[in-house]
Amino acid sequence: MTLIAILLGTLAAGIGSVWLAAALSFGVLARYTQHMLSLAAGALLGTAFLHLLPEAFESGIHAQALFLTLLVGVVFFFLLDKAELWHHGHEHHHAEAADAHDHDHAHRDGHHHDHAPQRMAGGWTVLAGDSVHCFGDGILIASAFMADLRLGVIAALAVLAHEVPHHMGDLMVLRKSSGTRRAALLKVTLAGAITALGGLVGYWLVDLLHDYLTYFLVVAASSFIYVALADLIPQLQKRLSLAETLAQVAWLFAGILLVTLASALAHTH
Question: How many Cα neighbours within 13 Å face the side chain of 225?
Answer without folding.
Answer: 19
